[in-house]
């Protein structure tokens, strides 16, 4: 067998025009964001008009230079002060810019082809659990971890057999979902405009306008703090509030105890306890809700609801119910089985970040690019989440109760209470995480508004992606998370799930999940699985 040849490299992409050096102080919210790099991976099939990968890389590079000029924060560097709080230093050229990696794996027979990835539903979760380390921009060992000196943004273009992959990753310290959406869409648009002009023999389009400073002004999310508090004082405030606790480095035992109560663990039978370590490992997975099944599910929930329920309300309610039942091994258990429920379960509750840009008084500027969210909580009694019996009417009532709780949970928002929470974050002697007090079943994140990720086109020869994935690079898989992906052009919706392995296994065998959704994959080492499938094709038994 001929040796595999992998071509790798990177370019330091400077802004296409001059940028003004400055420092942007990250908000109290952004300092509470996980120190991870949310990313988007666009899987693009080769097609008529697809050019040499280096040609597309060059076009993407020039488009990226315009994004770095238009949005200078993307070419900045993370800095931490004495407390460990973040800011972004935007230096002058040539130190401002984005590292753009290139990787050509077309000669690497160990890496799956585009078709092999497509057949497996593009099983990309985080580059770690899925074994697709090549999708990390740069090398795994030197990939940033959102600490002092790390970049705010980095990108990669990959050529594989049968297709190409574009990846863009941002540190969570520079924003929520809005910043990634805007920068990705602008990158695609600039690349398209440059490629079309080049193909037509026309001059390059003029540089875009730099985004207004007010879109980056975090001052209203950085409350003034007259003096720092001690951890003892911070803990007293947390205890008085009752909804959060602080990651207190002066009392690691208390912190560990509180952290262990945030996400309930799965109930295991005596037999399952023999394999506890394996079954309790956190695992990522994905399922798909086809539009026609979503419509059926929404109609079932709506039949028992007072007021309109959105598709997202119903997806959250359905997955909350099915994952709650899976975690506690309640399949076949009814609401009347109070003793079993009491023994195995905590009272159901979920949390989710909600956009507060327009809720603030006065509202933040339209298109504000910093993080602007608060955490909302929805709760229902277990007897309301678990159906009374196996009938559709009982299913309707339980789904309606959960979906209504989700819908109504963020109706009342108190700006002063939110400001007090930000002040508490800022008052800690060092910048540390504050976590919600449990038990919390799942953290739910709604990405459906990012449909532009799916529909953006990358220019002649590339076009739209066949599919996208939204991995989180450089993080440990959480114990309970639901991420609702952007709606596809045909109306289908993917959902990324994280839970203990045993919960995921039970969920994938859930009859109602199979009825209303399509389990796509649980995280696995994709290159190894593809190689095993190929080996099986050539065994004597497989040929007979």
- Report the structural category: alpha+beta
Strand content: 15-25%
CATH topology of the largest domain: Chloramphenicol Acetyltransferase
Runs in which pLDDT lies below 50 for 5 or more consecutive residues are none
* Radius of gyration of CA atoms, rounded to a whole number: 24 Å
Termini, distance in Å? 26 Å
* Mean pLDDT across residues: 94
Helix content class: 25-40%
In total, the number of strands is: 19
Helical segment tally?
Answer: 18
Largest sheet report:
7 strands, mixed
- Per CATH, the architecture of the largest domain is 2-Layer Sandwich
Shape estimate: globular
Number of domains: 2
Provide the CATH superfamily of the largest domain: Chloramphenicol acetyltransferase-like domain
CATH structural class of the largest domain: Alpha Beta
Domain Trichothecene 3-O-acetyltransferase-like N-terminal: 57-178
GO molecular function, one term: acyltransferase activity, transferring groups other than amino-acyl groups
Keywords: Transferase
Pfam family, one: TRI-like_N
Question: In a nutshell, what does this entry contain?
Answer:
This protein has helices spanning 53-70, 114-119, 178-199, 231-241, 252-259, 270-273, 276-279, 291-302, 311-327, 338-344, 382-385, 392-408, 415-427, 452-455, 501-508, 511-516, 526-537, 540-543, and strands spanning 7-13, 22-25, 37-45, 77-80, 86-90, 98-104, 153-160, 163-170, 244-246, 282-289, 349-355, 373-379, 434-436, 442-446, 467-469, 472-473, 480-484, 493-500, 518-522. By secondary structure, it is an alpha+beta fold.
């Amino acid at each position: 067998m001929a040796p595999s040849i992998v071509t790798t490299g990177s370019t330091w992409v400077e802004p296409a025009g001059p940028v003004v050096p400055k420092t942007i102080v990250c908000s109290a919210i952004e300092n509470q964001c996980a120190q991870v790099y949310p990313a988007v991976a666009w899987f693009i099939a080769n097609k008529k008009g697809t050019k040499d990968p280096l040609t597309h890389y060059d076009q993407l590079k020039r488009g990226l230079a315009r994004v770095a000029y238009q949005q200078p924060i993307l070419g900045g560097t993370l800095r931490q002060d004495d407390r460990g709080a973040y800011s972004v230093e935007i230096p002058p050229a040539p130190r401002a810019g984005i590292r753009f990696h290139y990787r050509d794996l077309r000669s690497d027979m160990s890496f799956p082809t585009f078709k092999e990835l497509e057949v497996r539903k593009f099983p990309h979760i985080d580059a770690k659990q899925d074994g697709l380390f090549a999708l990390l921009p740069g090398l795994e060992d030197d990939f940033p971890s959102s600490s002092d000196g790390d970049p705010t943004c980095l990108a990669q273009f990959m050529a594989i057999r049968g297709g190409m992959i574009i990846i863009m990753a941002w540190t969570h310290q520079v924003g929520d979902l809005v910043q990634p959406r805007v920068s990705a869409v602008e990158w695609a648009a600039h690349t398209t405009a440059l490629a079309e002009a080049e193909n037509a023999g026309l001059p390059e389009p003029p540089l875009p306008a730099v985004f207004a400073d007010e879109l980056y002004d975090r001052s209203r999310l950085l409350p003034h703090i007259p003096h720092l508090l001690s951890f003892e004082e911070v803990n007293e405030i947390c205890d008085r509030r009752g909804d959060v606790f602080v990651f207190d480095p002066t009392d690691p035992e208390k912190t560990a105890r509180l952290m262990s109560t945030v996400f309930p663990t799965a109930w295991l039978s005596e037999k399952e306890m023999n394999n506890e370590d394996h079954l309790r490992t956190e695992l990522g997975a994905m399922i798909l809700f086809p539009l026609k099944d979503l419509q059926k599910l929404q109609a079932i929930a709506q039949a028992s609801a007072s007021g309109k329920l959105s598709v997202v309300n119903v997806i959250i309610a359905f997955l909350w119910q099915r994952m709650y039942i899976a975690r506690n091994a309640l399949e076949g258990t009814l609401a009347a089985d109070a003793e079993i429920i009491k023994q195995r379960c905590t009272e159901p509750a979920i949390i989710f970040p909600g956009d507060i840009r327009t809720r603030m008084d006065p509202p933040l500027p339209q298109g504000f690019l910093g993080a602007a969210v608060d955490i909302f909580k929805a709760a229902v009694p277990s007897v309301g989440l678990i159906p009374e019996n196996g009938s559709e009417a009982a299913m309707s009532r339980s789904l309606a109760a959960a979906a209504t709780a989700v819908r109504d949970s963020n109706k009342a928002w108190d700006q002063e209470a939110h400001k007090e929470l930000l002040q508490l974050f800022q008052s800690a002697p060092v910048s540390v995480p504050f976590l919600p007090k449990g038990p919390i079943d799942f953290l739910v994140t709604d990405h459906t508004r990012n449909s532009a990720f799916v529909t953006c086109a990358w220019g002649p020869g590339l076009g739209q992606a066949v599919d996208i994935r939204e991995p989180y690079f450089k993080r440990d898989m959480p114990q309970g998370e639901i991420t609702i992906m952007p709606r596809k052009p045909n109306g289908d919706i993917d959902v990324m799930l994280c839970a203990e392995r045993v919960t995921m296994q039970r969920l994938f065998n859930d009859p109602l999940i199979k009825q209303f959704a399509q389990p796509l994959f649980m995280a696995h080492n994709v290159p190894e699985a593809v190689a095993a499938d190929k080996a099986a094709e050539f065994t004597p038994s497989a040929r007979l």
